[in-house]
Amino acid sequence: MAEQRLFHAIAEQLSQLIDEGVFPPGSRLPGERELAERFDVSRVTVREAEIALQAIGRIEIKTGAGVYVCDEQPSRPGALPEVSAFEVTEARSLVEAEAAALAAKLISDEDLVKLTNLIADMQSPDGDISTEADGEFHATIARASGNGALLHTIEIYWRMREELPNVKRTYEAICDDDPKTRATEHQEILDALLARDSDRARAAMRTHFHRLIGTMLDVTEREAMREVQERVSQSRERFLSGIAD
Known about the structure:
It is a single chain. The protein is mainly alpha-helical. About 75% of the residues lie in helices and about 5% in strands. Strand 1 and strand 2 form a beta hairpin. The termini are far apart.
């Protein structure tokens, strides 16, 4: 790698370490000598990498005090927004319903067989297998729509489902809550695709996501009630235990 390009690679590695929490916001980076040894580059290269990171607001170079990770990090291209599971599901309903309608006219026989097998995998007691099959079911329909923009959008929504902790927890809770209904709804989507019926495919996909939102509300309500009951129980234990009748 050319020396003038090497500092870009070091800057990227430092950015990754910041993102992973190795160097959290507000922390002081190791000195140039230590970083140079760590990355097996010159101190000049480290200095250039730090200057590049300061230019985009990731670190601050304080003369005589060291180099510190900025408390507020800039948004990075491709970063996922902080959204709720309800927002993700609402957006998926709007986009995936239209993808299903398009796919109904274009989907191949091979993909229809694949979808059948994926529904069987969704009923696996192994949560990882079930979730992977669910994702591939929706991705297969998106690809079958023949619209690359739709496919990209649906893939981003799936990343939100899997990579945003609060969204992932909510989806895991509702998938465990009613696995039979989940399989039935996907079968209804498949049946509409088998019939090559766009309107029916759109409606089946919307019904699936409408039920998901309803189940999310039920699960959220149960969790809220459980938290209230726990707080009341703790208060009862604290304030009433030991008080004579």
